[in-house]
Amino acid sequence: MSNDWGFASIGKNMWQAVRSLCRSPLLFAISVLSVGIGISATITIYSLIDTLLIHDVTATRGDRLVSFWTPWTSYPNLVDLRESKVFQDLAAAGQCYPALHWDTGNQSRDIAAECVSANFFHTIGVLPWRGRPFSMIEATPDRNPYEVVVGYRFWKRKLNADSSALGKTIYLDKLPYTIIGILPPSYRSTEGLGFQPDVFVPLNVKVLPSLLNRSSAVITYLARLAQDQTPAQTTAHLMAAVQVLKDRYPGQLPQVITRANLIPVLGLKKYDEDPDSKIILDFSEILAIVSALVLLIACGNVAGLLLARGVGRQRDLAIRVALGASRAALVRYLLFEAIVISTVGTVAGVLLSCGILKFLANVTIPAYSAQLNTTLNWRFAVATILAGSIATIVSGFLPSFASSRTTLSQVLRTGRGTVSPRLRLRSAMVVLQVAVCAILVYSAFLFLRNLISILHTNPGFNVSHTTWIDIAPDGGTPPLKPQQTQTLLREIQSQPGVQAASWAWYLPFNLVYSDSIVVQAGNFRPNNFHVTLQGIGPDYLSTMQIPLLRGREFTMEDLVTAAHTSLQPILINQSFAQRFFNGKDPIGQHVETKHYGNLSQSVVVGVAANTSFENPGERPKPLIQPLDMSESSFIVRSTSISSSFAPTLERYLRRRLPGFEISHFTVQERFNRSTLPARAAAALTSTLAAIGLLLALMGLAGLSFYNTIRRVPEIGLRMAVGATQRDVIWLMLRESLILVGAGLALGVIGIVAVSNILGTVLSAEMHAFDLPSLLAMTLAVLFATCLSAWLPARRAGNIAPSICLRTD
């Protein structure tokens, strides 16, 4: 027995399996194709999830890196905390917001920039591919360093892979930055989700004017844990050090010192705190399940084909038993065929997956400055081996054991040309395949309908005629004063084609939001209830065309009165009013909030209609809109489409403000960017569903063809006693339809079971159990399966009775 699995024996069995499969080239090709497609889909999805969510960081010992942000993570505190030795290394990193503008000479472009401290690259343990990183002496913020490290993609595509780029100057926000380094092609930012910064600039007051203010938390800390310190121990030491800083600098740190949540840079935990990232995690889980179901269908195909082949080879197997072969020898002989199929299919799947991943590596997502760049590493190899092993086990063991039960007496009793019993096990596998396929197709239709719903949803404000204008001073120009901002707003409102204008901290569908904790609203005291905060200017609602339900909106007079009172006016949305005032009139009610640990008192002057704010089609969330005294980001509604109007307004502002950097984007562009997750969900699920449906059809067609061959004598007898071609076709088609019907019924049960998972990533207008999607799935599966079963049934109807009877 020990020699049965020796190298010589394995080689002999493999060679016999290859020779046996080559005698059935069609079965071999279909089996390899099924396994290859299933494995390719599985490891491609795994690679995307791995590179975007799990290991999307280039760092030395990334498992020891953590990041955190609180109301006290300012740069002066970072300098003091370094001296406390709580961490082995402590750096700062974060996306520059608003975005920096790269001046190419002909035009100004927004680029994705990451602001980092001088020791950032030392902390993560990454050296540039060419050049050098920032030094601690030259990159201190008070020196206003004008040096930049560029990403490999930026160097290759924007700088045309200039070999002499080091030492050259690029202009960011009209300031000259010298290129000192180029990052390696494999670099993955600590931001995660495939984010690829174009440039890295050192922290300076030109990019972040309030950087040196101890009470201004404008940066995120990135830290390497000290040797042998756990996150819990580090947190305790950190809070003690922060308390010392609070005592040392009274009044400069928040009244309430919040506990730092040390979030690992590697792994999925870093996305748990963010609701938007939670949706991405939920969808990733769905994709992982869907890809596993595709692999299951593929393995079911191979298992079914091998079962059917085993039925046709019962005479050969029975003779082997009669000559002395044991059942274990038969199982081993048949199992090696599955091993050969799985091995060849795995190789084909890896090659196909590599091609897909190479294609995706060249796909960029400009709206997010992300890149789907995956690498073939040991995790990819482990996933491939695991998928191939699962394919071997699922597709090989069951057919091997089932076919090895053949005896010579059974074959002689059943006759020369017939096979008994029926292929119940194979039929059961087809039912399971159709059920799984039904779930996949339903998910695809559901996400397609979800996308259509989002694209046709009314966000509650004007999308096509609204433009965002950002005005930022260059290095030598002071920012606009409140009076200048108000004057500029009136000038913009008087321009031809402008219907209304206002300002705001940010627009809906932004990547970053500010929030506040409601302490008291009227007589209601919630328990630390977070709401979104959006500072706005006068006439914001009319500019965005958001309906005002109660009260009034802000006017220019409010800017004068609000400057002399501690009770600030606020607008709330309908969701906030329903949540906190329970049908009472909210106008005139006081609201107490906590923002960055500081308490503020406000009075409600107006109630606006609910709008989509973080994602299109979302369920309404409570929103507070305080009056912002002065802002340099304007919102303009025009009579023409914003994409044609915005350049004209930008040219006017460039002439009006020569010392400022002017940029714009349309609200339509921001809306389109916000729909990318829904588009990706619909595209990926549709692709996987199409693959699953194709595999299921191959399985059903294979069963029908083998069933036709098995029942040739019976068909001959039926036609001899008067059965017509139509009768034979219906006989064969009916059996396939029964299997499909059973699979659809089982699939509906599965859809009900997974509806809760699907519902976590849908818009508010969609329900997880969607009848139109269910109907579309049923029609699609019925049509496709009937088509796949029709060809074998038609072939059976065309068999001449004389040929049928000669086989008996």
The total strand number stands at: 25
Kindly estimate the percentage of residues that lie in beta strands according to DSSP.
Answer: 15-25%
Low-pLDDT sequence parts: 415-422
Main sheet properties: 12 strands, mixed
Number of helices: 23
Structure in words:
The strands form 4 sheets. Strands 1, 2, 3, 4, 5, 6, 7, 8, 9, 10, 11 and 12 form a 12-stranded mixed beta sheet that branches. Helix content is 49%, strand content 16%. With 808 residues, it is an alpha+beta fold. The chain has 3 domains: 13-55 and 274-421, no CATH class; 68-266, no CATH class; 466-674, no CATH class.
Which characteristics define this entry?
single chain; 808 residues; alpha+beta; 3 domains; 12-stranded mixed beta sheet; 6-stranded mixed β-barrel; 25 strands; 16% strand
Topology:
Layout: H1 7-22, H2 25-54, E1 65-68, H3 75-83, E2 87-95, E3 100-103, E4 108-111, E5 113-116, H4 120-124, E6 130-131, E7 147-150, H5 152-158, E8 169-172, E9 175-182, E10 199-202, E11 221-225, H6 231-248, E12 263-264, H7 275-312, H8 314-322, H9 327-361, E13 364-365, E14 370-371, H10 378-403, H11 408-414, H12 424-455, E15 466-473, H13 482-493, E16 498-503, E17 514-521, E18 529-533, H14 540-544, E19 548-551, H15 556-562, E20 568-573, H16 574-581, E21 590-595, E22 598-608, E23 623-626, E24 633-638, H17 642-656, E25 660-666, H18 667-674, H19 676-710, H20 712-720, H21 725-759, H22 771-797, H23 801-806
Parallel strand pairs: 5-10, 7-9, 18-23, 20-22
Antiparallel strand pairs: 1-11, 1-12, 2-5, 2-11, 3-4, 3-8, 6-9, 7-10, 8-9, 13-14, 15-24, 15-25, 16-24, 17-18, 17-21, 19-22, 20-23, 21-22
Helix pairs in contact: 1-9, 2-7, 2-9, 2-10, 2-19, 7-10, 7-12, 7-19, 8-11, 9-10, 12-19, 12-21, 12-22, 19-22, 21-22
